[in-house]
Amino acid sequence: MKRKKSVIPGFGLSFGIVMAILGLIVIIPLCSLVFFSLKLSPHDFLVTVTRPRVLASYKVSILTALTASLINAVMGMIIAWVLVRYDFPGNKILPFIRNMLYRRSDAIVFQTKSQASLMPRYLQTNSKIILNPISSELPEPYSGLRRKAIVTAGRLELQKNHSMTIRSFELFHKKHPEYILEIFGKGSLQSELENLVHSLDMDDSIKFMGFSSDALLHIRTASAFVMSSKFEGLSNSMLESLCMGVPTICTKCGGGGAEAVIRNGVNGILVDIDDDIAESEALNKIVEDKSYSNHLSNNALMLRQSLSLETIGNEWANLLFK
Fold first, then answer.
1. 10 pLDDT more than 80
2. N or C: which terminal CB in the chain sees fewer CB atoms within 10 Å?
3. Strands, E assignment, the chain
4. Sign of CA dihedral 52, 58, 60, 66
């Protein structure tokens, strides 16, 4: 019988070497310490472990480990940031090294087809698309009369493109002045976005909600959820909105997250980045045509099972163990 291929090539050998080294330099010495300490009376043990020299060794060990961890955290972050942010002599070889290592893998997992398409074709043949799961604690779909509120959620940063959402809502608000926009999240652009709201004379209709543990409850009962990102993977807020049956509008942005789960006009609406008119018209259609809104909601709810922890967990299990 052909031997089953290991998920991690060389795992058995490397695991054996690590355990042998661990046993020789850690486990055996620790066992000898335990064996020796059992010979001591409680009083002698207490005297031994509280000697000044022993206490000093505790201090040296703990402080050294803490210092090393902090240095690794800071320097590791800086090095990783430099590697992906800047061009420098020799950095062109990094993708080649990455691809060479990836080529030896049994599979490469991506969140979306758009992300997989960025890799060389010979790596795409070994790729697998596995979406993010939704939490088992996600609130149940709302069946009552929806609030006259549009909701968006995300860091107040350039990537999330909240300015588009604000401009689109301002156009929508001219026809539907009874609606409000709730923006959940914080970030460096909050003052700039607040100034934009003020310049549009929308202070009473657009609310900055900050971070809130109740955000999902607000999204659940809203008339629509909007995500206007310039680039995005699989937004958890978007997935949660869809899986609660909230009519959802997203931009066709870099990363392909929205297009991975939304079929335009079927279970959600896709618009181009910075197309304020298209986004405002999508909002109009959702609030004015209840049958269309219900159509989007009912189809979006089908994602709840396909994105459940059990379903996504099984996809990972099938990849790793079969």
1. no
2. N
3. 108-110, 127-129, 149-153, 180-184, 206-210, 224-227, 248-251, 269-271
4. negative
Inform me whether the pLDDT recorded for 198 exceeds 80.
yes
Neighbouring-strand partners of residue 251: 271
Work out the burial of residue 147: count CB atoms within 10 Å of its CB; fewer than 13 is exposed, 13-18 middle, 19 or more buried.
middle
Rounded to an integer, what distance in angstroms lies between the CA atom of residue 35 and that of residue 46?
16
Degrees to nearest 5, angle at CA 81 with 134 and 61 = 90
Torsion of CA 111, 113, 118, 122, to 10 degrees: 110
Query: What is the pTM for the complete model shown?
Result: 0.72
- For the chain, helix, strand, coil in percent to 5 are 55, 10, 35
Q: Amino acid identity, residue 16?
A: G
Query: Which residues are CB-neighbours of 251 under 8 A, at least 6 positions away?
Result: 161, 164, 227, 228, 229, 230, 232, 258, 270, 271, 272, 273, 279
Closest CA to 181 of 199, 197, 195: 197
CA angle 132, 225, 159 (to 5 degrees): 65
For residue 37, give Cα distances in angstroms to 31, 32, 45, 48, 133: 10, 8, 7, 10, 49
Q: Which two tokens stand for residue 229?
A: 């990102």
- CB within 8 Å of 6: residues ≥ 6 apart: 12
| SS3 (DSSP) at 152 | strand
Tens-digit pLDDT profile for residues 212-239: 989 999 999 999 999 999 988 888 999 9
Tokens of 47: 């005297």
Buried/exposed 172-193: b ≥16 CB within 10 Å, e otherwise: bbeebeebbbbbbbeeebbeeb
Residue 81 to residue 191: CA distance in whole angstroms: 27
Cβ-proximal residues to 297 (8 Å cutoff; 6+ apart), any chain: 141, 245, 246, 247
